[in-house]
Amino acid sequence: MKFKLFLLCLSICLLNCANPNTSLYVGTYTDGDSEGIYQFQFNTETGELTNKQLAAISENPSYLTYSPDKNYVYAVNENEDGTTSSFKVEDDNRLTSLNIVSTHGAHPCHISVNESGDKAIASNYTGGNASIYTIKNDGSLNDSFQILNHNIDSIVSHAHSAQFHKDNLYISDLGKNGVYKYQLDHNKKDYRLVTPSIIKMTDHAGPRHFSLTKDGQFIYIINEYANTITSGKKTDNGFELLENTSTLDDGFKGASYCADIHLSKNEDFLYGSNRGENSMAVFKRNPSDGTIEKTQNISVYGDWPRNFTLDPTGKFMLVANQKSHNISVFKINKENGKLTFLHSTDLPSPVCLLF
Known about the structure:
Blueprint: H1 2-18, E1 21-28, E2 36-43, E3 49-57, E4 61-66, E5 72-77, E6 83-89, E7 95-102, E8 108-113, E9 119-124, E10 129-134, E11 146-149, E12 159-165, E13 168-173, E14 178-185, E15 190-195, E16 207-212, E17 218-223, E18 228-234, E19 239-246, E20 257-263, E21 269-275, E22 279-285, E23 292-299, E24 305-310, E25 316-321, E26 326-332, E27 339-346, E28 350-354
Antiparallel strand pairs: 1-2, 1-28, 2-3, 4-5, 5-6, 6-7, 8-9, 9-10, 10-11, 12-13, 13-14, 14-15, 16-17, 17-18, 18-19, 20-21, 21-22, 22-23, 24-25, 25-26, 26-27
């Protein structure tokens, strides 16, 4: 019996070693040569991207996310009449359309799914609101059951990203210059506003995306206008401001606009993208007090890095360069988190990468 179990484990190991490829989906803008969502095979040993195919025809699928089991993909369609599309992942990695529902706002730019996989939220940049959906058993979306509207005064709202964390929901609003916190009301089964500003932001910072540590004790907000990362530590009422740290090289003097932010899997390193300087900023993170220290600014070998991602092994970073129509691949040094450029793959208007 033990010998049979050994042979089974050995065969699984050999199969995984023989096939180090994993799927990468790419969201694009379709106002040029792109047709929708593309799929590549990514080699987690060499960093190579191969076997490009059109996974699904879709209009401006500018942000993508998986269901927790990775059986479904959700995309926002960034148009004046904003919509969200749901897809089933097929055995050949193509995506079969399930349904399309309204975001009830213009130009949705971000979508995320909660940990249990039964809710999704789409952020409408021009609409200034966010729509929350329930997800059916077949992966398709119901129409939104709640719309969180930030257009309540003369300050223009630009909801830019949102994330669920347990019973909390955080929404980054670039126009309102704040990160909103909502909490699930279990009785009414909807989300109630707790605070429109979980942390003190500098004037005209422009919070765009953010990363939370797994335990929710620290938050890192990347600011499009200020070209900074705002770091915060959780308190009873929100987050205590730790510091604001520049994402730009000290010698850079031109115009630049931050885009995306991600923590490494071990949360020892933090990364941010700069559109204009066209660079990735690398930070070493102190896990005990949450502070960060910039250690590298490296060219993205392209123009206008919008979104980036780390591969499942944590050994590689891939960057979507919107204006230069290419995806850059970097090797990550596991000791210090720094990046080394490997190669680039052409694709029209890539703006979102999903492993």
